[in-house]
Amino acid sequence: MIAIIKYNAGNITSVKNAVERLGYECQVTDDMDAILSAGKVIFPGVGEAKSAMNHLESKGLDKIIPSLVQPTLGVCLGLQLMCRHSEEGDRKCLGIFDAKVKKFPATDIVPHMGWNNLEVGVNPLFNGFGEDDTVYFVHGYYAEICPQTIARCDYVLPFSAAMQRDNFYATQFHPEKSGDVGEKILKNFLDLSR
Amino acid sequence: MLKKRIIPCLDIRDGRTVKGVNFVDIRDAGDAVELAKRYVREGADELVFLDITATVERRKTLTELVTRVAQEINIPFTVGGGIHSLDDARAIIQAGADKVSLNSAAVKRPELITEIAGQFGSQCVVLAIDTHYENNEWIVYTHGGKTPTDLRTVDWAKEGEHRGAGEILLTSMNNDGTKDGFAIDITAAVSEAVRIPVIASGGAGTVAHFSEVFTQTKASAALAASIFHFGEISIPTLKDYLKTQNIPIR
């Protein structure tokens, strides 16, 4: 079973639909036992960092998420919350990745919205990812490049498009909204062995 | 490099696609989900569903359609038409839409932009502006282009951004349905005046029109309905052409 963490953020339906399109069963839940016993966990989200972190704390999920041992995928706000700190609401986050989340400087259109290329390293998440492939982003804040960066994107400045540490994976882009390319990335995650 | 987006618009009535020419004359032309899937296969970067249903059953019908679309489509989509309240927006977003577009309701009560952005994030809120050039000014219209307001288009776009809109969908009523090209001047003016993405709409008739709007304005995306809907231009043909013009295209 795949657990999709339910919290006060948008976009959870889209992730559930995408997982089901790939033929996997999933459950949207904030139940600790269901999350801890899931084979894989997805931590999605679109929203604001501070209120999302406050909500996670109120549910005890801020302790559970960093303690997970199964493959876990953060998406968009999920990635940002897995970092050390976010400038959005000046909020301490989960600290899984050693990066800060900052606001894009207002030198170009913000949010970074649309399809963009990636510079990917060797990682099972990006098996089969082609040089010209693009994925869909929509975000006004970005995670810095850090040792856990496994894919970079360049918009105004280079930032972390995907990160990994041990069993924790995360993408700033939306694999569930990135067409066939995104489905491949999501499937790569769902097929990871524990 | 961030790509310019090509967005087919599907006008919806009672769960089926229709197309208004110059906002009047409406023709029925097919199943919305099937057409949407066809556009996705052809390489559409995003979709917009504009609901023009006028019955009391509209919200239920639209929510059911959005649920089906969200199950079957793997690219972002926006839903607009008849979103008058935070509850309307919530129903559509929870059914799986990525964004809602607001038009008349935002003019009537601009706080609605802030309320929806506050709840779901600015990226969820598209401010749709129907604009008409008259007496040397681009004026905002509401109610499907029937009702003039006293708002100047650039001012309203800036106010929308300030109130929390994440994107502007700008439709020139003078150009819509003409196939003579996008309204370059107002699209340029709005896309210079705001720092959020602007989607150009109204008037696309040839592949060159898309190239014009991307090279002569800062538009992030271009939207069209009938030329795609009736197969006059295919999305792959359009995208191949834009690539030859060195426009960043997926």
Description:
The complex is a heterodimer of chains A (194) and B (250). With 194 residues, chain A is an alpha/beta fold. Chain A has one domain: Rossmann fold (3-Layer(aba) Sandwich). Chain A contains 6 helices and 14 strands. Chain A has helices spanning 12-21, 32-37, 49-58, 61-67, 77-81, 179-190, and strands at 2-5, 26-29, 40-43, 72-75, 85-86, 91-92, 100-103, 112-117, 119-120, 134-139, 141-143, 149-155, 157-165, 168-171. In chain A, the strands form 3 sheets. Chain A has an 8-stranded mixed β-sheet with strand order 2-1-3-4-14-13-12-9. A 4-stranded mixed β-sheet of chain A has the order 6-5-7-11. Chain A has a two-stranded antiparallel ribbon with strand order 8-10. In chain A, strand 1 (2-5), helix 1 (12-21) and strand 2 form a beta-alpha-beta unit. The longest helix of chain A is centred in the last third of the chain and has 12 residues, at 179-190. With 250 residues, chain B is α/β, with parallel strands linked by helices. Chain B has a single domain (5-244), classed as Aldolase class I (TIM Barrel, Alpha-Beta Barrel). Chain B has 10 helices and 12 strands. In chain B, strands 1-4-5-6-7-10-11-12 form an 8-stranded parallel β-barrel, surrounded by 7 helices. In chain B, helix 7 (184-193) links the parallel strand 10 (167-172) and strand 11 (198-201). In chain B, helix 6 packs parallel to helix 7 (184-193). Chain B is globular and about 45 Å long. Chains A and B meet through helix 1, strand 8, strand 10 and helix 6 of A and helix 2 of B.
Calculate the mean pLDDT score of chain B and round it.
92
The number of helical elements of chain A comes to 6
Strands side by side in the biggest sheet of chain A: 2-1-3-4-14-13-12-9
How would you sum up the global shape of chain A?
Answer: globular
Q: Keywords for this structure?
A:
heterodimer; A: 194 residues; alpha/beta; Rossmann fold; 4-stranded mixed β-sheet; 14 strands; globular; B: 250 residues; TIM Barrel; 12 strands; 28% strand
